[in-house]
Amino acid sequence: MTQTITLYVDGACRGNPGLGGWGAYVITESKEHKLYGGEPHTTNNRMELMAAIEGIKFCPTDAKLIIWTDSNYVKQGITEWIHGWKKKNWKDVKNPDLWKLLDATCQGREIEWHWIKGHAGHAGNEMADQLANLGADQTLESMKNPSANANQTPTVVVDMDKKKDEKDWLLDDPFGFDLMDSDPQDDDEILENDDQITEHLTVEIAQTETVQDYIMPQQEILSSTATPSASAHPHIVITPRSKEVFGPRQLILDTETTGFYFQDTDRIIEVGAIEMVNRKLTGSSIHIYINPKKPVGDSENIHGISDAFLQDKPEYAEIAEVLFNYLKGAEIIAHNATFDMNFLNMEFKRAGFVALSEVCSVTDTLAMAKNKHPGQKNSLDALVRRYEVPQRDRTFHGALLDAEILSDVYLAMTGGQVSFDMDSLTESEQQEAQTARQQSVQVDLPIIYPSAQELDEHETWIKQFEEKHGIACLFAK
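Structure tokens predicted for Ribonuclease H (477 residues):
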């Protein structure tokens, strides 16, 4: 693959059937391409299909394409239904001409199809919608012009150079993964809509010259034994370490939010993280409730946090510095890290900080689980059952509770430990575990001695080495 290209495609129709347009917003590493066109008499579904077809045809055949559409019809049609349509020879299928063309256009290409909620403030989708309407407007003008093609307007392409030093959140998604098998009741893996189509979120990584001001030096991380500065805010609960440990910090983290749209509308209402060093929980944790200054809405059914409860809690800007100082420099471990990091990045930037992903590395346990258990359910609840992690009451999803559960799951996934913290065992239990480990490796191994010829050859080689280099050989007796 020479490059990865992101496409946002959309269709529009004024009357169904009626005047229609299609748009494709194509984002490469160096340019943005805006494609649009239309037809005087068409349907919305046909314009959705045309947007995908024209967008794909525009891209090089050896590029990997990531396509976002707000049409369930297009996404499910090309990834699921089309196989049945072919088997029944396209009988009773609407728009077979365009489906066949889309299928032929996709052949030999690597394409990832994703659904995105339309008219929800996503910049890429909004741009595709604008282009589709521009295609309809141009078609209308062409109809008024006798010299124009009476049936279809030509495709218009507008190329725009991207700034070389500017990261594009629409294109860069270092923590993003296909979340189609997510558990629809768990916001750790992003809720699906009523049509069971998952919305994929991307991480915005800001480029800043002041990032070094926030990064904890590696030497300090390795030698640190103290918990980051304690909170002076009454609504921030920071528990200090109960053990003396040395090594890089890992923070198992979870958030609760008012919804899924981190860009403009939804906000964080709870953050919980627990600290681990060298696979041992240190006893340190941070827990904060936050006033989002907006109703929590239906999300209360998931986390159980009400508007009344959050009314006297601090806004994010009030707690941002303490939270940032606690998290910075650590490895963040989260289940569907994309979701949590999108919200944290956006909230910190609103408060005047750099994105958290600038100063922390990130490990996504959902991606780990999907790689380890392909084709299986990998929600947090499913992993708890699979690894026989001690059950806890999850009637509601709390950030600190989920972080505690995830710490057990992470240790089980990465080390297969049954006892997650040896320091919690009694002295006799630790001695029994040590004896069991020693007994398990006591194997009578055969001893193979060298022959006389092999010993002579070894001595000869050592002498040659010492004569050549003038130093004693390490292998000499």
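Residues 446-477 form one domain.
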